Amino acid sequence: MELDLFFWIVARIAGLASFTTLAVAIGTGVALRTAVLDWLGTNRALKALHEFTTPLWLPLGAVHVITIVLDRTARLTALDVIVPFRVSYAPVAIGLGTLALDVLALVVLTSWVRRHMNQALWRWIHRLSYPGFAALFAHAVLSGSDFSEPVVSALAWSTAFALGVLALARIVFGRLPA
Other CB atoms closer than 10 Å to residue 32's CB: what's the count? Predict the structure, then answer.
């Protein structure tokens, strides 16, 4: 198998796995404060799943990014995956992915140092996961070659819809105490 094809396949698998893991992390995070999914499991179980999946998407995302950079067909540089909208090929699609990576990495990194931060600032940064996921979803729709597959498309759209409903429930019903 040609090396670029191998990198392309690994990038696709890692991108889909990262998307799924991040969707679970955000969904459980929203569910922890809305009581909408209380029927699904205990708060302890939701918190454990949230705390497991939140850092898990990082290495999956890193594999996605690294293999895209190594794939000579994609022609992306390391700087392209840090600075949004600077590529010539599909600048909006790739730029949204870069922006999502930057924002969501900031959310995770600040969560690791939460105890040393102003809690109001941390909450505002943590809320960036909503637009971060929206940017990631737009990146996937615009640049993801797997969206032409009905199963992938249906799962991604239904995941985004479910997260939208959870976010709306959070807005309507407010935040539950920790």
Answer: 17
State the residue for tokens 């199963």.
Answer: 151
pLDDT band of 104, cuts 50, 70, 90: very high
Residue 25, token pair as written in the block: 């992390």
How many CA atoms within 13 Å lie on the side-chain side of 170? 18
pLDDT per position as a tens digit, 134-144: 999 999 999 87
159 alpha-carbon distance from chain centroid: 12
174 has a pLDDT exceeding 80: no
Of 95, 99, 77, the residue nearest 86 (C-alpha) = 95
Residues constituting the chain: 178
Which residue from 61, 57, 64 is spatially nearest to 24, judged by alpha carbons? Answer: 57
Helix (H) or strand (E) holding 147: none
- The H or E element spanning position 95 is helix 91-112
Give pTM, 2 decimals.
0.88
Helix axes 150-173, 3-32, angle to 10 degrees: 20
CA-CA distances (angstroms) from residue 86 to 72, 114, 126, 138?
17, 32, 26, 17
Counting Cα atoms < 13 Å in the Cβ hemisphere of 129 gives 25
Contacts with 8 (C-beta within 8 Å, 6 or more apart), sequence order: 67, 71, 73, 74
Domains and CATH numbers, the chain: 3-173 (1.20.120)
